[in-house]
Amino acid sequence: MKSKTDTTLYHGRRSWYIVGLILSFLTVLVSSYLANKHQLFGWERSIFEWVNGWPNNLTTFFKVVSISREALVLGAIAVVLTFALRHWRLSWRLAASIIGGSAIAFLLKHVIDRARPDGLMQNVHVRWADSGAGFPSGHVTVATIVLLTILPYLPTRWRWTVPTGIILMALSRMYLGVHEPLDIIGGFAIGLFVVCFIRIMPQPLRVFFKLD
Description:
With 212 residues, this protein is an all-alpha fold.
């Protein structure tokens, strides 16, 4: 598939987005249910302790990956850059998607109110203190939305950067000691849900709202 431009309609694989929408919705439901138990599961502890225990000399790198303590800063940078590059539709779609995904994440954070790692276990290496509830990860939500949204615009040889970027963001949140694995799964699922939802909207609606 050729890379998309900002003036061409996107004719992607609709069936893939439908499957992604269903799976992401179910993942949000299941992860929210588990997070609402307010406990740390064994598999979470194992993964978190492994990543969080990596050497301290990686701190600067993973702070750069996370960009800012505030997830919306990452989104704002993406919107401004795409606008500056005159990708008007893409910039607007990013803004709308990020607002929608962040709203869902904000709602779940306040409804579930799951603690961050240092509230669920001891000896956590908190390398970048953060406040508020842990589930879901806003950074992973925004990174997923941004990277999956720009995916069709990337040349094929550069599309590997999308999963790589999402994985690095996920690792950075655990390494810095601010999110557990379940938080990351929830954040990714919300991001995927938002992107898939927009992609399966009827074409007239996408064009009307300039989301294509």
